[in-house]
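Changelog entry

Holo records now carry the ligand SMILES as an explicit input line rather than a separate metadata file. Below, a converted record for adenosine-5'-diphosphate, shown in the new format.
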Amino acid sequence: MLQVKNVTVHYGKALAVDSVSLEVNEGEFVAVIGPNGAGKTTLFKTISSIIKPTSGEIYFDGVRTDVLPPHEVAKLGIAHCPERRRLAYRMTVMENLELGAYLRKDRGSIEEDLRFVFEMFPVLKERKNQKAGTLSGGEQQMLAVGRALMSNPRLLMMDEPSVGLAPLMKEKISEAIETIKKERNVTILISEQDASLVLSISDRAYVMETGKIKMQGKGKELIDNDYVKVTYLGL
Ligand SMILES: Nc1ncnc2c1ncn2[C@@H]1O[C@H](COP(=O)(O)OP(=O)(O)O)[C@@H](O)[C@H]1O
Ligand SMILES: [Mg+2]
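Structure line, unchanged by the conversion:
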């Protein structure tokens, strides 16, 4: 479904992503784990076409996307749930969710998706008329995930959904992601510094360090890998 081929990205002269190749197949749950500064956010922004690569190519369903503007990529069915949420803070919870659905034509299913989001995150329903900027960090993250889901994407990209959250809230977000995986017909690409949150629920994962893919494998295999254990799971 998604193919990233030898993608290199610079900020000015600084190299951020170094010849990365990655694939996500339809229906898969794929994680990119790596420390701060590894290039995960840059990679995700490049997949969304927010940043243009210096070299390399990206394809979605065989369509080359790195040459398209971001809204065209969104229309193809890629939703990007950005790092540190970036919501419309002055708008209400409900308005943010509606914003997520603005590209859709299938009005009938929007109601259904809204119900799913509210069922998964009841606190969003309780606070639907509250301004997004007044939510707690965890609630904002729920809203960001909910908003991305409201676009009914084929590929849902979540960039470090747990960053900056307290352990209990991290757990909640991770459970919600598992629910999405089980109940929605959506392919997921997620980045995380906290490998323990995603490796056990991912089909495959890539380890990214200083702009490069250092290793890849099935989620379960990586959990058993000595390097991953010591470096990312603190075992
Ligand atoms: N807007 C930017 N301008 C210049 N350098 C940046 C910018 N954003 C990120 N970088 C640099 O690119 C590298 C990768 O960063 P990033 O993609 O944010 O990594 P991660 O998401 O894995 O923490 C880092 O060295 C970072 O300092
Ligand atoms: Mg990041």
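Spot-checked after migration. The chain has one domain: 2-232. The longest strand covers residues 14-24.
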